[in-house]
Amino acid sequence: MGLPSDVYLEKLEKLSLNLQIHRGGEAIFSSAGSGIAPLIEAIDSIGRAGLRGSIVADKIVGRAAALMAAYMEASEVHAALISAGAKEVLRGHGIGFRFSRETRAILSRDGADLCPFERLVLDVRDPSEAYKRIKAKLSGS
């Protein structure tokens, strides 16, 4: 299981990061970027094989981020805030998870509606399909 959840989340806070991915006891990717883009960047720069079995520490994990963790075949996800939909995805893919707080859904930045990426993958079960949709939206397609 690696380090206790609070240690991963404390590292994020201490380093002013929003995402850090660990493998083999070392941080292999770190980002202060927000949203889903840093997870896509990690997948594209390291590759799925390099991320397989990793531990993902992310401040906010919704359904879209959980599907990306499943896509990269992460072993664990540690979240400061997790959505009910993310928990469902992680359980369904056999990925362990720990979290500090839970919410029903991840909202848009202004809090008025569902996060656009959550909406994009609301009906998606397949992590590969989720990756394609998220990648297309990020690239403006």
TrEMBL record:
- List, alphabetically, the InterPro entries matched: Cytidine_deaminase-like (IPR016193), DUF1893_TM1506-like (IPR015067), Hyp_TM1506 (IPR037081)
Protein name per Swiss-Prot or TrEMBL: DUF1893 domain-containing protein
Please name the GO terms that the record assigns under molecular function: catalytic activity
Spell out where the chain crosses the membrane.
none
Q: Name one Pfam family in it.
A: TM1506
Taxonomic path: Archaea, Candidatus Bathyarchaeota, MCG-15
Whose protein is this, by species? miscellaneous Crenarchaeota group-15 archaeon DG-45
